[in-house]
Amino acid sequence: MCGIAGFAGHRWIVDRCWQQMLNALAPRGPDAQRVSTWTQRFEPASERAQIALLHTRLSIRDLRTLAHQPMANPAGDIWISYNGEVYGWERDAEELKRRGYHFKTTSDTEFILHGYAEWGIDVLARLRGKFAIALLDQRTKKLYLARDRLGIKPLVYSHRSGEIVFGSTVRSVLPYLGSDERRVSSAGIDAYLAHRYIPAPRTIFKDIERLRAGHYACFDLESGALQIVNYWKPKADAAEFEATLTESVALRTVSDRPVGLFLSGGIDSTAVASVLVGTGHRDITAYTAAFPGTSFDESAQAAQVAQQLGLPHRTLPIEQHIGADFERIVADLDEPFADPSSIPLWYLSRAASEHVRVVMGGDGGDELFAGYKRYAKHLQSRWRRGLRIPVAAREQNAVPGKWEKWRDELSMDWLSAYSLRFSGMWPSLRRYLQPDLLDMSPVYWDRMPVDDGDALETLLAVDMNNYLAEYILRKGDLCTMAHGLELRVPLLDHRLYQTVLALPRGRRFTDPPKQALGAVCELCARLDLFKQKKRGFNPPLVGWLRDELRDRLDGLGARLQSSTNGQLGAPRVDELTRVFIAGRESLAEQVLQLLILDVSLTQLLAPAA
């Protein structure tokens, strides 16, 4: 688990620039920082360079300096900078050894490096786990960038004028672009308002893109051309579900540093905990966030689960006063990102990082087994299918409310209207805040499925392509890596996902949901977890906005009008905040969205140091 970045082109880049890129990645890799730099002829460079690979390391496998990155093959003509963790590679490594490859380390990094030397970019098919990889092949003058199949690890890039710069985060590529090249995207802003995040391939900047999950990019260092390839599409695999899940969890216990578990007491993390105990891993400590006196405190339930399973358990009280940390939290979320649960997760990750450097989580169960309540709710309106009631956009003189949101839903096609079940702002509210924005899309989802088959499968496809990779998994990566903590998600092993796709419909989709996990978690049924109400991870937003964050609302409209080049109108932003302060508490999440956008853009657009 690490931070990666790099660039390739004709310009000479001074060392001050790449040091700023490294600084942006420092929290992701607290154990080591290294840079390898060259001229276009691949001659070593020092104070300035045209090609570079950067790496900040969080040491998990093979803690020796020998395993630091960027790492080269023995000939020195293939280099890798890699963020992630792949599992079960040892069998393929034995094959490489029989073919004459010598391993100096026990790290998965060296396996990927030798695997590429033997199989080329097809090595991706042999990688099981999470990864964002940069491979520089000086023999073919190609730079490959690859992202794992489900999007667990992030990777962004900017390709302009025959040059490329890339990194784990948007903030790690900004020093290369310079302050005068940081052009905010109007579509990126509207996508953020619509979804609370910006779906790939967009980012908040016009010239920075996010590599899609399951894709790789090939940059030709001679021509400057860039090719994007979709290297993986899921296919149902009728393997044995319980065995595949058990294998997935067991593989993710491998580490040269202690491993912990995020245990909420819900079905998903309890199932992972049950498999751990069933495979003999009773020494892994479970960590639970505690929110004393709140309705979403699950620490007592988690403690009961840990006691029943015999796992060591530690409750971590979560800070509920965020005033002093708000700007750092926004910065650690990289670009505008407004999931309220990211705040308690950030605090939980900070507390857990004082004890371990690796944790497992239960992310993915809802997307695999249709666990969100919004699926059933939206399916109730499936009868209207393509039926829409065209409603002309009209000038709003007051902050739109529930009536306008209902009207918006009827004017959208059924699949696009699904966004209103969990989005930030509905279309009429976005039009109110952006009265002069002409090109507004109902949704900004990537790879929209064709809505002509199974309705539930269609909704799940939307979530797998967008919400899971760019919201749930992005949140998990950013909040944990902000504190040098690796998060492993065994429910999102790609082989397990393909096994789930092959399950009979009646076994995969149950009422109540996720009963397929009962086969590996008898405790879930014994504690009646399948029927318990999902509580979520929701912080006290209204209180924060009325107290610790209240002063930040003053002048919010003017600041956003300036940072968005007039896209957001100051009077209307201020009217929305006024209505919230006056008592319309249902607008709390929307006010938080605007506040995060303000702080994030202020940070991102600050002049380069």
Word description of this protein:
The structure is a single chain. This protein is α+β, with helices and mostly antiparallel strands and 609 residues long. The chain folds into two domains: 2-230, Aminohydrolase, N-terminal nucleophile (Ntn) domain (Glutamine Phosphoribosylpyrophosphate, subunit 1, domain 1), CATH 3.60.20; 235-609, 3-Layer(aba) Sandwich (Rossmann fold). The chain has 23 helices and 17 strands. It has helices at residues 15-25, 90-98, 108-119, 170-177, 186-195, 241-251, 267-278, 299-309, 326-332, 342-352, 365-369, 373-379, 402-411, 414-417, 427-433, 455-481, 494-501, 505-508, 522-526, 541-546, 556-563, 570-581, 588-604, and strands at residues 2-14, 32-38, 48-57, 71-72, 78-86, 129-137, 142-147, 156-160, 163-167, 209-210, 215-220, 226-230, 259-262, 285-290, 313-317, 358-360, 486-488. The strands form three sheets. A six-stranded antiparallel beta sheet has the order 2-3-1-9-8-10, with helices on one face. β6 and β7 form a beta hairpin.
